[in-house]
């Protein structure tokens, strides 16, 4: 059961990395310092005061930068690979009770995949916001993304199963929307 909950928590935090790269590691650092989570071997550094200070600083800078119009687009191009890497590391730091090869495989597939899916959706949302309003609603999108990252991160730590269910529902929604937007083939009669 402990392994299942650690996987749920890892996937939930990984998906939250897709909204904001540094929020989930910050929440994980706080949870580790308070003894709420147990980290995998080699990741105990996350639950230290220097890591907490560094992650808090990075989180504040990341959130503030998304409110600067030209900088938010630059961050989007950097955030996609960074979110996937952060998702992999967060998932691997939490998955315990598994062979290291299996842990890293699951972290790459589930953690990196969840982070990439959410990050891809946020890139599309920001592009739609910029294209339809000239960027006027980008601060609202940024606020929603930051709120989503904090909420999902807290849920992943406090009620991991619910966080996993939310990630799965979000994935189903994204797949449904992607299929709906596909152009229908045009058939010609000879």
Explain this structure to me?
The structure is a single chain. This protein has 190 residues and is mainly alpha-helical. It has one domain. Helices cover 77% and strands 0% of the residues. The chain starts with a helix and ends in a 10-residue tail after the last helix.
Can you give the helix content as a percent range? over 70%
Reading the helices and strands in chain order gives: HHHHHHH
Low-confidence residue ranges? none
The tally of strands reads 0
The backbone outline, from C-alpha atoms, is: globular
Give the end-to-end Cα distance, rounded to a whole number of Å. 61 Å
Number of helices, counting only DSSP H or I runs of 4 residues or more: 7
Radius of gyration: 18 Å
Strand content: under 5%
Give the overall pLDDT as a whole number.
90
Helix- and strand-based class? mainly alpha
Main beta-sheet strand count, sense and barrel state? none
Tally of structural domains: 1
Summarize the structure.
By secondary structure, this protein is mainly α.
Identify the notable features of this structure and list them briefly.
190 residues; mainly alpha; 77% helix; 0% strand
Q: Which secondary structure elements does this structure contain, and how are they paired or packed?
A:
Blueprint: H1 2-17, H2 23-33, H3 49-65, H4 69-94, H5 100-133, H6 138-158, H7 160-180
